[in-house]
Design brief:
Layout lengths: L3 E9 L3 E2 L4 E9 L7 E8 L9 E8 L5 E9 L14 E11 L2 E14 L2 H5 L10 E5 L5 E5 L13 E3 L2 E3 L5 E9 L2 E4 L2
Protein name: Histone chaperone asf1
Keywords: Chaperone, Nucleus, Transcription, Transcription regulation
InterPro entries: ASF1-like, ASF1-like_sf
Length: 192
Amino acid sequence: MAKVHIINVAVLDNPSAFFNPFQFEITFECVEDLQEDLEWRIIYVGSAESEEYDQVLDTVYVGPVPEGRHMFVFQADAPDPTKIPVGDVVGVTVLLLTCSYRSQEFIRVGYYINNDYIDPELRETPPALPQFDKLQRNILASNPRVTRFMINWDDIQNKPGERKDNGVETMSDEASSSSHVQANGNGVESGR
């Protein structure tokens, strides 16, 4: 059983100019005290063709975390435009919000982002070289994709390829499950 549950993620300042920072108000709950930090990351997927264009926009460590409900705003700068292939600048891409404990990712929230020009003329006839200062990003906050991974929350050492979650034997590292989250205003609530 997971010791951390995301209760809500609200996408702030959306839609927004391309160069504005990303902002997420994250509410989560710990079912018991965590002795080590939670590692939260925001990752911008620069191209669906290759992970080499993924950019970790920011990483924040929260902890140790006491039992109970917690909330914070996670803000990250916009991606470096020089690291995005020209053909992938305008259109749909993905932003990932991940959380790990003891270097084990246990949840990933993925959002579709549409980058497009505000000016109708630029939209109809896009320039050969992207004009980032004229782009607007729109995060599809109402329909995120949530993936949960089983991890070892305790100090217990397992045999290679075996994981335990609160003392219950689980599948190997590749084991994961997905669930749908329900829209709640500008954010999401996870269904348990």
